[in-house]
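Every protein is a chain of amino acids, and every chain bends into a shape of its own. Below is the pair of lines this work produces for a single protein:
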Amino acid sequence: MAEPPQNRPLTQLGPGDGVTIQVVGQPDMTVTVTVSDDASVNVPFVGNVPVGGLSPSEAASRIEKALVDAKILVHPQVNVTVTSARSQRVSVLGEVSSPGRYPIESNTTIFDLLAIAGGAKETGGSTIFVLRRESDGRVIRFPINLNKLSDPTDDQVPFELHGGDTIIVPKAPQVYVFGEVTAPSVYKIEPGMTVLQAIARAGGVTPRGSINRFEVKRKDGNGEEHIVKLKLTDPVQAEDVIRVKESIF
């Protein structure tokens, strides 16, 4: 899995965010405020200080400088804590129950967002994509395998979401299985699924069918279907059509 670039803070302050500003040793200057529409916060004795796009620690440093410049304190120590993050939102689109834009906190994970969006549908693929627009306007796409992401034995670094990201849950590749099978239908192709596994997914062969009598139709680059010769152990491809035939005996 590609690791996202770390060229901007994970939590960026923006309009609507609630923050608590604490000046160490000055309890009368502790306030809880909302970042205004112009992305600034009102600091006691100083006035509005721009904090848009800054992390809480960067905002604290800027407020410290403002206090020094205004000759309010000589060596101030400021802490900024986010109490409610309303500006940082991520879009979740594709094969989820409730697509939309959802707020994130600094510790929000991909699984958290998928759950908020109602979960991935049965038709959703196991590989999703996170789209991120860089400062130069380029959109970077990060493919993420959900199966690996949920594996507790995998030591990969968790993917850090940023406000403005878009999560795309694409439709999973599908295989059609019909003929002499118990449950003919369209099925999601799991990684490495073989012809035999696809037939088993369809409930297996009926008493009238034969596991060794099947045909597979596959589309070529022009979208035309052709019968391809496959073994039961061969992998299936997206949009394959498997027909299990009747036994000749």
